[in-house]
Amino acid sequence: MSTILVTGGSGTLGRHVTDRLRTDGHEVRVLSRHTRPYAVDLREGGSGLDRAVDGADTVVHCATSARGGDEKAARNLIAAARRAGVGHLVYISIVGVDRVPYPYYRTKLAVERLVEDSGTGFTVLRATQFHDLVFRVLRGLAKSPVVPLPARVKDQPVEVTEVAERLAQLAQGTPVGRAEDMGGPEVRTFDSLARAYLRAAGRRRAVVKVPLRGAAYDAFRAGGHLAPQHAVGIRTFDEYLTTRFDGGGARR
């Protein structure tokens, strides 16, 4: 079996990728800012990064930061991978990064291009938003008596463990370049997702659809972040909610 480094391997997606690869018998190294022995800040790079990458056959890049710095982190990782002779670089991206001019999407697209131009065999998988992300957004919005939602916007949430399964499969194969996009099983209006959350949480809130302006909103409204032709996910958002609440693992 091979040695695989998973950046962000303790995060929402990375921990599931790590578990699957270890189950399949691979030696897996977890790189994150706080996980030893490979506690590395990718934005800084350095000898710790070289040590983490040295001897790895494949690198699965799941690490990302809402605080910015993803492009610098990717450059450092790619440089270290090239020095170590890594044969396969796998990157998780988002459906629509080339169609929706949202700042975080632009960053993800820029990292995609760095990966493609790395000179290393690569695979890029784009997925729609995770159930967990939609859940956290709706829980935050529902803290007020009125839940404001962007008007005429749909979403296609996907189960994170299913994305992890697909990413692990790709990591164990040969580089394919752009893999087929991966979307959740249902394309739903955002207000229907919000009402499903409120029912599951036992909350009564007014839902108000707010028209917004801007190129990013127009692209979301046009469905640039959706992949209805790749609705390969199995677990629905309603099923996810049932598990979250019945399992007692979600704050209402």
From TrEMBL:
Transmembrane segments: none annotated. Residues 8-132 form the NAD(P)-binding domain. Pfam families: NAD_binding_10. This is NAD(P)H-binding protein. It comes from Streptomyces tendae. The lineage of its organism: Bacteria, Bacillati, Actinomycetota, Actinomycetes, Kitasatosporales.
